[in-house]
Design a protein that fits this description.
The chain is α/β, with parallel strands linked by helices. The chain folds into two domains: 195 residues, Rossmann fold, CATH 3.40.50; 99 residues, Methionyl-tRNA Fmet Formyltransferase, Chain A, domain 2. It contains nine helices and 15 strands. The strands form three sheets. The chain has a seven-stranded mixed beta sheet with strand order 5-2-1-6-7-8-9. Strands 10, 11, 12, 13, 14 and 15 form a six-stranded antiparallel beta sheet that branches. Strands 3-4 form a two-stranded antiparallel ribbon. Helix 1 links the parallel strand 1 and strand 2. It holds the Pfam family Formyl_trans_N. It comes from Paenibacillus residui. Belongs to the Fmt family.
């Protein structure tokens, strides 16, 4: 039996490693091309490629998976099963119909909720308490295929997109390990998704990153942790971008009296945090990054800047 694995970021690495550690016959790995990374724009290989090369696996990196050449290369591998995890491109019908065991995808949400490229971030942005991983048969639509198996993962109050990313990547690998024996033995009864219950999780846009201080503090808290570690939430101060990397979970609106100050106004600037008025309650910022500097605890920032009470952020 030949397995072709398709994946790109760190999220896919545990699933690939699980296949290799359990002696599944991975014939080749398909991943995205190397991309420039960091301020120096150094050409960097995807994490999945690094693992594949370390295990001596052939690696394909087509710019477009739909291109005839790419489809032909994968067809030549004669895959019996294609396993994908956060590959990053929509797989064409010509490949979906190729393996006798089908194409399956390890997706970081409880489908049909959060279809798309940023399900982890959107689950936190929208204040979910539970998310998970779904393994599904791939279809021509975006994350629309029949569901094979799923596992729930709680979202803790202090989780960021980064910590949840790690939890879900491990949960996905474990779920794949438990699912494959039944799938390969033909014991799977896939369940169609209820498309009427579907929600979307598109890739994060620049406007998703900007903090709107007129929103409730609880929503801004979710925005900040949902965009940590990438790409980060931001506001403006003195005409420059001010990144906000961490904040303290706000007390409930019942417990805290609403400030009369306009949203975005700094109410207090203390070493333990900067309190900012919002549209509902206030939010304590704890890790921020002024333009041209690294991310720092508020106590460090206050030593060299004039973020004083009465300053309005976001103007």
């Amino acid at each position: 039996m030949n397995i072709v694995f398709m994946g790109t970021p760190d999220f896919a690495v545990p699933s690939l490693k699980m296949l290799l550690e359990n002696n599944y016959p991975v014939k080749a790995v398909v991943t995205q091309p190397d991309r420039p990374k960091g301020r120096k724009r150094v050409l960097t290989a995807p994490p999945v490629k690094e693992v594949a090369l370390a295990h001596g696996l052939p690696v394909l990196q087509p710019e477009r998976i739909r291109a005839a050449e790419a489809v032909g290369q994968i067809r030549d591998l004669e895959p019996d099963l294609i396993v994908t995890a956060a590959y990053g491109q929509i797989v064409p019908k010509s490949l979906l119909e190729l393996p006798r065991h089908g194409c399956i995808n390890v997706h970081a949400s409880l489908l049909p909720k959060y279809r798309g490229g940023a399900p982890i971030q959107h689950a936190i942005l929208r204040g979910e308490k539970v998310t998970g991983v779904t393994i599904m048969y791939m279809a021509e639509g975006l994350d629309t295929g029949d569901m094979i198996s799923r596992v729930e993962v709680p979202i803790e109050d202090e989780d960021t997109a980064g910590t949840l990313f790690d939890k879900l990547s491990l949960a996905g690998a474990d779920l794949l390990k438990r699912t494959l024996p039944d799938l390969l033995a033909g014991r799977i009864q896939a369940v169609p998704q209820d498309h009427g219950q579907a929600t979307q999780a598109p890739n994060i846009r620049r406007e998703d990153e900007r903090i709107d201080w007129s929103r409730p503090a609880a929503e801004l808290y979710n925005q900040i942790r949902g965009l940590n570690p990438m790409p980060g939430a931001f506001t403006t101060w003195n005409g420059e971008v001010l990144k906000i990397w961490a904040s303290r979970k706000p007390v409930s609106d019942v417990q805290k009296k609403q400030s009369a100050a306009a949203p975005g106004t700094i109410l207090q600037a203390l070493p333990e945090g900067i309190e900012v008025a919002t549209g509902q309650g206030s939010l304590w910022l704890t890790v921020i990054q002024p333009a041209g500097k690294k991310a720092m605890e508020v106590a460090q920032v206050l030593r060299g800047t004039q973020l004083l009470p009465g300053t309005v952020l976001g103007e």
